[in-house]
Specification:
Blueprint lengths: L17 E13 L3 E7 L4 E7 L5 H6 L8 E10 L7 E12 L14 H6 L1 H4 L3 H23 L3 E2 L5 E2 L10 E3 L5 E4 L4 H11 L1 E9 L12 E10 L3 H22 L1 H6 L5 H4 L6 E4 H10 L12 H8 L6 E4 L22 E6 L4 E8 L4 H10 L8 H8 L5 E7 H9 L20
Parallel strand pairs: 3-5, 6-10, 12-13
Antiparallel strand pairs: 1-2, 1-4, 2-3, 4-5, 7-9, 8-9, 10-11, 11-16, 13-14, 14-15, 15-16
Helix pairs in contact: 4-6, 4-13
The chain binds 4-amino-1,4-dioxobutan-2-aminium adenosine-5'-monophosphate (4AD) and magnesium ion.
């Protein structure tokens, strides 16, 4: 096997050696006898220095063809140079142009509008800022797996094509042979419940789909959700798991992605405060607080984005809003024995105006009550036969939650809109690129 090409991030191990870097040109400048090209390879950047008097004329001439995003192999001696972008330089001895790039490359070093950038997302991904965001997203994804693996949870991959089950929001459908319509999964939870009865503690991590006609900064039509489900956990256990989980994700980013948070100019002081226990407030109390602060919410309504922002403004760390009215939440949540108008559930709201990142609940484990709720909501009992069976054969106390990955990444990065934290966002008016 050939030697792997050195990555720019590892250049400090190659000082004094002549190596070949493969990458793309992000910046060029020339001052007659000396010319510079900054090369990006996805792991970092390095400045390649071309000195006319030290190069064969054809290599010096080739420098002129280096436009923005030309792909190249550059050979040269690695030198430590603290003043250079990336802290290293390549004293160039050879240059091969792999893929030329016409001068009309869409993304130029100037301000572009968000719609233009999203139309050119396939190129916009190449910026430093986007790289920082995706390093943080990747850190969070890895931390999620590490957290659950260390606690002995099994990861279960649940189906994307389903027969009309899930949450209340809109469904995407597609024809499915002779079986009628199939619907893209809005949640893996119900399958997760079946798996929890088999394996105890599980989590799902997959794409979920909602045909919601909402054009807000926190709604995508395709997003990624992590859904743990735990046998024998009640609602209080469920919230303890959530606060440990969210705190761990934040801590991992602070520990391992400090440079990327700095690149995004994220104020990390509010993140340092994200530690258990989170605040806990009952829905009924939350409504009173909100009314005092001028919201027009009345008992029975779900909290809107503005209500959530108003509520979290008084807290220095995430807050659980607990036990919502039945009519505001999904059919599968367990009735609260202390107030049957409400269910045993929580939404975890992130501070700094972000709001809901998690929806969780204890599940209705009583067969008759669940059947009653399915009928009350006018859901097709047929499609839920297997789900009811879980209550018929060895029912069990169990709870779980769903954490929205993009909302969590946007909050930790301190970004206003979740479309920036997914590589190719899907929204009501966006299906390309
Ligand atoms: O509150 P939701 O709808 O809960 C469920 O789907 C449950 N089945 C979870 C469970 O108990 N296993 O969604 C959970 C989270 C929300 O808190 C939010 O972070 C995210 O998923 N989410 C969205 N993220 C982006 N775009 C959307 N349209 C979203 N809808 C929900
Ligand atoms: Mg919710």
């Amino acid at each position: 096997m050939a030697d792997p090409t050195p990555r720019i991030v590892d250049l400090s191990q190659h000082v004094g050696k002549t190596i070949t870097v493969r990458g793309w040109v992000t910046h060029v400048r020339s001052s007659g006898k000396v010319a510079f090209a900054v090369i990006r390879d996805g792991t970092g950047i390095v400045q390649a220095v071309f000195v006319k008097t030290q190069l064969p004329p054809e290599v010096w001439e080739r420098f002129k063809d280096l436009t923005l995003e030309t792909s190249v192999h550059v050979t040269g001696e690695v030198r430590a140079e603290p003043r250079a972008p990336g802290s290293h330089e390549l004293g160039v001895t050879g240059l091969t142009i792999i893929g030329p790039s016409p001068i009309d490359y869409p993304i130029q070093p100037k301000e572009h509008g968000i719609d233009f950038l999203l139309d050119n997302r396939h190129f916009w991904l190449r910026s430093n800022r986007v790289r920082a965001i995706f390093s943080i997203r990747n850190e969070i994804e890895q931390a999620i797996h590490d957290f659950f693996y260390a606690r002995g949870f099994l990861r279960i991959d649940t189906p994307i094509l389903t027969a009309a089950i899930g949450e209340r929001s809109g469904l995407f459908s597609t024809e499915y042979f002779d079986e009628g319509n199939a619907y893209l999964a809005q949640t893996g939870q119900l399958y997760g419940e079946a798996a929890a009865a088999a394996f105890g503690s599980i989590y799902t991590f997959g794409p979920t789909f909602r045909a919601e006609k909402s054009k807000t900064r926190r709604h995508l039509t395709e997003f990624w959700m992590i859904e743990p489900e735990v046998a024998w956990n009640d609602s209080a256990d469920n919230m303890r798991l959530q606060e440990d989980f969210v705190s761990y994700l934040v801590e991992r980013c602070l520990e391992r992605r400090a440079a990327e948070l700095r690149e995004l100019e994220r104020d990390t002081a509010p993140l340092e405060r994200v530690k258990p226990p989170f605040h806990r407030v009952n829905y009924t109390e939350a409504v009173e607080i909100l009314q005092k602060r001028g919201s027009s919410i009345t008992w029975g309504d779900d909290l809107g984005a503005e209500d959530e922002a108003l509520l979290v403004s008084e807290y220095d760390r995430p807050v659980f809003v607990m036990n919502y009215p039945k009519e505001a939440k999904a059919f599968y949540m367990k009735e609260n024995p202390e107030d049957p108008r409400t269910v045993l559930c929580d939404d975890c709201l992130a501070p700094e105006g972000y709001g809901e990142i998690i929806g969780g609940s204890q599940r209705e484990d009583d067969y008759d009550r669940l059947l009653h709720r399915i009928n009350e909501e006018g859901l097709p009992v047929d499609a839920y036969g297997w789900y009811l069976d879980l209550r018929k054969y060895g029912t069990f106390v169990h709870s779980g939650f769903g954490l929205g990955l993009e909302r969590t990444v946007a909050w930790i990065c301190g970004l206003p809109h979740i479309r920036e934290v997914i590589a190719f966002p899907r929204m009501m008016h966006r299906l390309k690129p």
